[in-house]
Amino acid sequence: MTAPQPSATDAELDAAVSAFVPRSRIRAWLDDGSSFLLVRWAVLRLLGVVYFVAFASAYTQAPALVGEHGLLPASVWLRRVAAILGSPAIAFLRVPSIFWVSASDVMLRATCALGALLAASVVLGVTNAGVMLVLWALQLSLSNIGQTFWGFGWEIQLLETGMLGALLCPLRSVRPFASAPPPPIAVWLLRWLVVRIMLGAGLIKLRGDPCWRDLTCLVYHYETQPNPSPVSWVLHQMPRSFHVVGVLFNHVVELGAPLLVVGPRRARRTAGALFVAFQVLLIVSGNLSFLNWLTIVPALACFDDELLARALPGQLRERLLARAKALPSRAHVRVARAYAVVVAVLSVAPMVNLLSSEQAMNASFEPLHLVNTYGAFGSVTRVRHEVVLEGTRDEAVTDATRWEAYELPCKPGDVRRRPCLVSPWHYRLDWQMWFAAMATYEDEPWLGALAHALLRGEPAVRPLFARDPFADAPPRFVRAELYRYELTRRGELVDGAPAWWKRTRIGEYMRPMTKDDPELAAFLREHGLDR
After folding, report:
1. What tens digit of pLDDT does each residue of 366-423 get?
2. CA-based Rg of the chain, rounded to a whole angstrom?
3. How many structural domains is the chain composed of?
4. pLDDT per residue over 333-377, tens digit each?
5. Which of 408, 412, 398 is nearest to 428 (CA)?
6. Inside any domain, residue 7
7. Domain identity same for 331 and 480
8. Residue 28 in domain
């Protein structure tokens, strides 16, 4: 097979670049002879897992959160957006989504089911740009109508990573090893992504909470993070020196390792190993949804086929490495170069933000979320507060009223219930309840909608709970109490029995309300959630 000859356009581009930097230096940096056939295989398989989790978890939760009878109906929100922007066409361009056609529960479930099915095909080996672009479009549509429940940094990170995943793939093939490796520049775009993710997270910490500078943040983090795991309980018991070393390692990976990515092959491999090891530690020590799994995806681009092939049997290794020597098609190279220019232009705003003393976390600068800015845990809370929803069927609230608590799947509630380990699954209401404890219910319109749904016995919201004590008939009153939760120490008993947590009541978060409470009705009307 003969290598494709460069076109006049390619030759002119190379000549123009060489006028500023010698061609040999460009090749030594951008293309050191490494191939990425196995790298693409690993990147796409893990990306497929993340897509599958994103759509499968949305299938079970989206109707309850943004469906027709959900807490923040997408149809209501889209009508509001269209009214504000004044034109359906402008509204679509600003908020592109297939749900402008219909935001019904059937449409939501069909979209999530299709996304999960295509993601499963990617996990099983489908390697095709068209499939990846459809997954990206479905994720964009869902993210753009998810409102606060899809307002997490990993949603836009999945969009940016997903588009780069499509850039790795051929358009005419679906088999994992049937075509040539991707152009090196496509791999470099993934490396550019992981560098920005790491630097964004590291810089926001240094600029944010002083505990990242005095190396004490992990003294609190394992207890106060959104959804602690059983390992969080163990790590919280460790001595202060252990936590100090943990923060130092965090800074080395997020602020030091990105510099190695622009170095020679061995330096890049070292950076990739540090990135992956760090994300695995985060997966084990907390339930940060699919964020850490997703961050491993571009980190894999720091490796190369020669390194990954060492894990394969000899004959298979030789066969795949021989196939990896093929050259990408001329069309694939041109598309990758063109998209690199797009990324370069769109990277200006994220880089300005990254260098700013007013750095923002997890922000987009254009409607397609192609190049974004990232960050995590710019501040760490020192005390864990939890909002606990309770209901009663009593006709009147008195000191003798018996309240029963609703239990969410993965939030601290019953102090004897073991913390869960669910990463990469995403329980969206659990996360929002963590944020709600830092505010008031008046600041969280969905919380009033949730209370009203529970009082009505709305079936749509039941999948959001692990335990609904009023599944057979709705309560007469619903209230919310605010507690301080603390992880217990080894051997510590709560009310004479072993427990994972101990808690202290802080006070009332939301007063007892009935279905016909005029204050609740006015609150829902104010936010367009009355029905």
Report:
1. 999 999 999 999 999 999 999 999 999 999 999 999 999 999 999 999 999 999 999 9
2. 25
3. 2
4. 999 999 999 999 999 999 999 999 999 999 999 999 999 999 999
5. 408
6. no
7. no
8. no
